[in-house]
Design goal:
224 residues, alpha/beta
Length: 224
């Protein structure tokens, strides 16, 4: 499978560097470059790539708003935020806008293609420096969202899985915690995302913190 990528950054040198790194990979092709957020949205809608590498600070339309426009209208496109700004507020806003990943521009070149594949494959990715605590703090600083109606449709086990997702645990860690197989965890995660109408587990983390249920005892809905 070839991963099709659009690179959005207002610095030509940065775009060229990313293109060279990605096109050295046999399974990645850069289909377009954009110098601002508006152009990124236009090109993505025209070309429908698998992944958009999105800078945050760009002219005309910034990366956060461009991400929100894309994820709101094209659910198949995944956005990987790349920025030099390791600032907490950007992390939260990018995830809230629907980004599936967040990496700093000083990420080693060897990890960029891997990150693109991870995002294209439907998973989510955060840079190691983006901690669970930061997401929790910025979510709690905002007005809590109403508890989603779909939360009541979760089984007790699915609810437990959601709470563990909110702590940042991987599928393997959740399986160990609940003493179930990793395949079973994947099934539960898929059900959680479907019932809550979420794109990926990053949105599940944001939702759990915004709704004020992360870190709390499970609300045991009816059913198992």
């Amino acid at each position: 499978m070839t991963v099709r990528v659009v690179i959005a950054d207002d610095q030509e040198l940065v775009r060229t560097g990313f293109r060279m790194i990605l096109e050295a990979e046999p399974d990645v092709v850069v289909v377009a470059e954009a110098s601002d957020g508006r152009e990124a949205v236009s090109l993505a809608r025209e070309l429908v790539p698998d992944v958009v590498l999105m800078d945050i600070r760009m002219p005309v339309l910034d990366g956060i708003r461009a991400t929100a426009e894309l994820t709101g209208s094209l659910s198949s496109i995944r956005v990987l935020i790349l920025t030099t700004f390791d600032l907490d507020e950007y992390v939260y806003d990018a995830l809230r806008a629907g980004a599936s990943g967040f990496l700093l521009k000083d990420t080693p070149a060897s990890q960029l293609a891997s990150a693109v594949r991870t995002i294209a494959g439907g998973d989510a990715l955060l840079a190691p420096s983006i901690t669970r605590r930061l997401i929790a703090e910025f979510a709690s600083a905002r007005q809590p969202r109403p508890v989603p109606r779909g939360l009541r449709d979760l089984t007790a086990r699915e609810h437990d899985v959601l709470l563990l997702i909110a702590t940042g645990r991987s599928n393997a860690e959740i399986a160990e915690e609940l003493v179930i197989s990793e395949a079973t965890v994947k099934t539960h995660v898929a059900h959680v995302l479907a019932k809550l109408e979420l794109r990926d587990r990053v949105q599940a983390v944001v939702l759990a913190h915004e709704a004020g249920i992360a870190g709390k005892q499970p609300i045991r809905p009816a059913g198992t």
